[in-house]
Amino acid sequence: MSVDTPKFRTSDEVDFVIIGSGAAGGILAKELSGHGFQVVVLEQGPYLTEADFVHDEIKVLQEDLLTNHPKLQPTTFRKTPLDKAKHQRALVYGRLVGGTSVHFTANFWRLHEIDFIERSKIGAIPGANFVDWPITYNDLEPYYTKVEWEVGVSGLAGASPFDPPRSKPYPMPPLPVKSSGVIFERAARKLGWNPFPAPMAILSEARPGRSACVNCGFCLAFGCEVGAKSSSLATAVRMAEKTGHCEIRPNSYVHRIELDERGRATGAVYFDAQRNTHLQKAKAVIVCANGAETPRLLLLSANKQFPNGLANSSGVVGTNLMLNTGAVSIGVFDEPLNDYKGFAVSRILHDFYELDKEKVGFYGGGGLDARFDMTPIGFALGSLPPDAPRWGKDFKSVLKHNFTRSMEIFGHGTSLPVESNSFSLDDELKDAWGLPALRMTYKDHPDDMKLAHWLAARSMELLDAAGAKQKWTMPVGESEFAVHLLGTCRMGNDPAKSVINPDHRTHDVKNLFLCDGSSLVTSGRGQPTMTIEALAFRAADRITELAKRGEISA
Ligand SMILES: Cc1cc2nc3c(=O)[nH]c(=O)nc-3n(C[C@H](O)[C@H](O)[C@H](O)COP(=O)(O)OP(=O)(O)OC[C@H]3O[C@@H](n4cnc5c(N)ncnc54)[C@H](O)[C@@H]3O)c2cc1C
Ligand code: SF4
Fold it and tell me: Which atom of ligand 1 is nearest to the CA of 20?
């Protein structure tokens, strides 16, 4: 039986207005509407479906069909607060219903126990604002399992000797191994490392209304045309709508959260597609706009009571930005691998998850994955050997040879929270609606740079052991571009040093909650989305309990 999705009036005081329908927002919408609460989700991007997704590199990668557009929402960048920010593209995220989970790679790693308690184990790190989480792996474990079963994650439990404990196996087997995975696995074993099937938020078995992966090959940065990628669009958002209590309202760009004289949030103010302004009234507001837009919205919502930004009495909003350290090496082999067919990653390893600081001389850790995530134009522009010809017959011949014979090793690692690394409001640049643009300030902690070089060296070692005929590492430079947007409204028990408490409630405003990449306290080792979604399931439980006890609207 189909259920009509409700249409609320802006003057209806719904139970929750959720801002952003991405990895976290979709799940909160699903859970809260599933408990019978009235929910309106305001999403700035359009509501596209599988039928709208195309294999068009120009539209998707160059014209930002699915992502934040640098002309509409421009950004600036500076390395330190002392520098003048330059107008440049500083970040990418999914700007549509389903958010960044629609176009992501879908590597889906849990954090390990150590991630939550590292500060206690390692001690202070100069220049970093390194603290323990106020919750532990055990608090989150049931929610990791819930994510795997509800959205659909493929993988093999117990395949990695480094895996944290789990209460249930994966709901479906791993995706088939790719050529890059076979090569990676053999070479890693030669080196005494422990490769294993990559856990992926991609279906290896069909589910009602969703096909298993058909290996279309346009995966990273593209929307899945068969619903195999377990995005919020293909999973939580649809389930939320089926409850009959949730309205997803696309093309709704929120630019202010209103407070009443008692200091309680009354709703969210947004521009509709025609740029008319509306206030959606709600008993409580939940911001899930990601690690860049959530702090921006709080800063845009400054008022008399909170002159430095809503819920920002601590001054922590926007700070401690973490991006996850990365390194990419590419190998070319004699025989065709044809790795462009299919999803990106089939094998990973976690032998370096927790490096011994005393031995390597820096803090950090990470994982390696074997992949090919390129589509033809992107490959031609960015994945040829440094000395390859870039024009004419020789260029064509290297393209023809390398496209089918290349694979990549990605290193993914920690990045440290540094107070001055942040998202804030630019003093001069405005977006197409006249609002202050996002300004990113970022300089990698020296340990993060050392880790990037270290991971690159391990990737090269692996490509060597694999017998690659040609291999090189992409230049390891300081970060100026953000893909993972983490830590900017961190969770903590101390209102002076964090923005939300372990219930995701802001310390300053009783009926304002934040849940997304901004909630993370440490960065993990890359692949934050599994944790963001587990936090969202947990937040939904906490918020439901508070609401049922009458502690939100009182
Ligand atoms: C190219 C790429 C590849 C990635 N691959 C991986 C991967 O393999 N594994 C992994 O774990 N992670 C990956 N990530 C990161 C992952 O996608 C994000 O960590 C995750 O989606 C973040 O979830 P979120 O809920 O914080 O925000 P998002 O998913 O970004 O959702 C935020 C939503 O809020 C909306 N929004 C923002 N501001 C407003 C506003 N003012 N009003 C209304 N709506 C608003 C946005 O349009 C968006 O839909 C990748 C990211 C990118 C860019
Ligand atoms: S490779 Fe598979 S999961 Fe990725 S977009 Fe294509 S069908 Fe979907």
Answer: 34
Confidence of residue 249 (pLDDT cuts 50, 70, 90): very high
Separation of alpha carbons 198 and 178, rounded Å: 11
Atom of ligand 1 nearest to the CA of 45: 47
For ligand 1, atom 31, which residue shows the shortest CA distance?
Answer: 22
Q: If you take atom 39 of ligand 1, which residue's CA is the nearest one? A: 289
Q: Which of 204, 229, 233 most suits a substitution to test ligand 2, by most atoms within 8 Å of the C-beta?
A: 229
pLDDT(54) > 50: yes
Lay out the sheet containing 406-413: strands in order across.
195-197, 345-349, 366-371, 406-413, 325-332, 470-473
Q: Which ligand is located closest to the Cα atom of residue 228?
A: 2
Residue located nearest, by CA, to atom 8 of ligand 2: 224
Q: Find the mean pLDDT for residues 434-441.
A: 98
Q: Which atom of ligand 1 is nearest to the CA of 483?
A: 53
Alpha-carbon Rg for the chain in angstroms: 22
pLDDT in tens, 226-247: 999 999 999 999 999 999 999 9
Ligand 2 binding site (Cβ under 6 Å of any ligand atom)? 202, 213-219, 222, 224, 226, 228-229, 342-343
Give the pair of three-digit tokens for residue 267.
Answer: 């709703």
Closest CA to 484 of 100, 71, 214: 100
Helices 113-122, 137-147: axis angle to 10 degrees equals: 160
Identify which of 490, 444, 418, 474 has the alpha carbon closest to the alpha carbon of residue 133.
490
Q: 256 CA distance to ligand 2 centroid (A)?
A: 36
How many Å apart are CA 519 and CA 509, to the nearest integer? 16
What is the token pair recorded at 172?
Answer: 């479906």
Q: How far apart are the first and last CA of the chain?
A: 36
Q: Any idea which residue has 């017959």 for tokens?
A: 393
The number of angstroms, rounded, from the C-alpha of 52 to the middle of its chain's C-alpha atoms is 23
What angle in degrees, to the nearest 10, is found between the helix axes of 179-190 and 446-465?
Answer: 100
**Confidence (pTM):** 0.98
- 215 CA to centre of ligand 2 in angstroms: 5
d(CA 93, CA 96): 9
Q: How confident is the model at residue 1 (pLDDT cuts 50, 70, 90)?
A: very low
